[in-house]
């Protein structure tokens, strides 16, 4: 189970978007809004040769930000709080996925001892 979970988490997208691509594709995204969200740290594209490049996760994140902002009238302050929690959740998920992988690679006796300790039987 741990290996499947790790593979799903570590799979990377190969699609890359520029700022112009995103503004053209996302109906209510403007350059002003995008730059404000970049300043807030809500979106963190990678940089290559000084240009910001966005992947599928960045695009999905922007779509969610736009939905929350436009459709649910959630302000930038609340968005920062929400995405802070989302980022913490994903970080914890990565750590737990790694832990599962480490446990999966242990001998059966060690895995059983961990399972007993987890259940409070140890």
From TrEMBL:
InterPro entries: DNA-bd_dom_put_sf, MerR-type_HTH_dom. GO terms for biological process: regulation of DNA-templated transcription. It holds the Pfam family MerR_1. GO terms for molecular function: DNA binding. This is MerR family transcriptional regulator. Gene3D superfamilies: 1.10.1660.10. SUPFAM superfamilies: Putative DNA-binding domain. Residues 25-70 form the HTH merR-type domain.
